[in-house]
Write a structure and sequence with these properties.
Elements: H1 2-31, H2 42-45, H3 50-82, H4 86-101, H5 104-115, H6 120-127, H7 139-162, H8 167-175, H9 180-209, H10 212-217, H11 225-234, H12 239-263
Helix pairs in contact: 1-12, 3-7, 3-9, 3-11, 7-9, 8-9, 9-12, 11-12
């Protein structure tokens, strides 16, 4: 039995070591050493430079804004879907899942085409004699791209938790005299909190670390911390500084994961 177990888990273990453990160890090694291999903390201290701090704070700001917008949009929609009949809600949920099957880069490029000064949206607005929309290469376009790409990651965990709530508990609260607002505040929202925390984490982390969205929709004019790290690796070939900045960013990721683990111990807010 043990031998069979190891045979079945072998491919997963190989994949984990090759694509997770080894890359992480390399990041730690390069982040804590100089080009000559000597130990140093200077690479991590590079985050204190004004241009890097500016990129980090802007990334944090846009990530928080995107996460809040996704939450405000996803929670009411998840509640509506959870109260619909099975066939109808399955179809609508599928509509939100389908874009996730498409390539991330293609989805973002599509918005770049739509938002260009002579793009589809502005052509329609000109045809209707309305003011054009000039948000490409601005933080607004980046937030729009983040919300579009990561909204399903907020919707699905909340939806999965809401459909698991026992309707008898909700009905009992109403039978005891609670109105809709009281039922939501005291029953529905507390029970859906694992999904909310999971969704916030799943939106905030990729928003904080992204560089593709800001590169395409920001026109390389707006640098987030992800863009700075990308430049260190690709343009300057400075793996040591890039890894040091990545280690700092990893702290935010670990904090987010710890919060999710605290409020979703049973995995109730899992997206899939």
């Amino acid at each position: 039995m043990n031998k069979k177990h190891w045979l079945l888990s072998g491919p997963y273990l190989v994949w984990t070591v090759a694509f997770i453990v080894i890359p992480l160890l390399l990041i730690v090694y390069y982040g804590l050493t100089t080009a000559e291999g000597a130990f140093t903390l200077d690479n991590i201290a590079q985050m204190g430079r004004p241009e890097n701090l500016k990129a980090l704070w802007l990334a944090l700001l846009l990530s928080v804004i995107s996460t809040v917008i996704c939450l405000v949009m996803a929670y009411p929609l998840a509640m509506i879907l959870s109260n619909m009949k099975f066939n109808a809600n399955s179809f609508i949920v599928m509509i939100f899942i389908i874009p996730m099957w498409m390539n991330f880069l293609l989805r973002t490029l599509a918005w770049q085409t739509l938002l260009e000064r002579n793009g589809v949206i502005n052509m329609v607005l000109k045809f209707l004699h309305l003011p054009t929309l000039n948000i490409i290469n601005t933080p607004y376009a980046i937030v729009l791209g983040m919300v579009y790409n990561f909204l399903p990651f907020m919707l699905l965990p909340i939806y999965n938790v809401l459909v698991k709530i026992d309707k008898n508990v909700v009905n009992a609260a109403r039978d005891l005299g609670a109105n809709s607002f009281q039922t939501f505040c005291r029953i529905i929202f507390p029970l859906s909190l694992p999904g909310v925390i999971s969704g916030i984490t799943m939106v905030f982390v990729p928003s904080l670390t992204t560089f593709v969205i800001s590169d395409l929709l920001g026109g390389s004019k707006i640098l987030l911390i992800g863009n700075v790290i990308e430049q260190k690796f690709k343009q300057g070939s400075n793996w040591n500084v890039g890894s040091g900045l990545s280690l700092v960013l990893m702290v935010f990721i670990l904090i987010s994961m710890a919060i999710m683990q605290k409020y979703d111990k049973n995995g109730e807010g899992a997206a899939f």
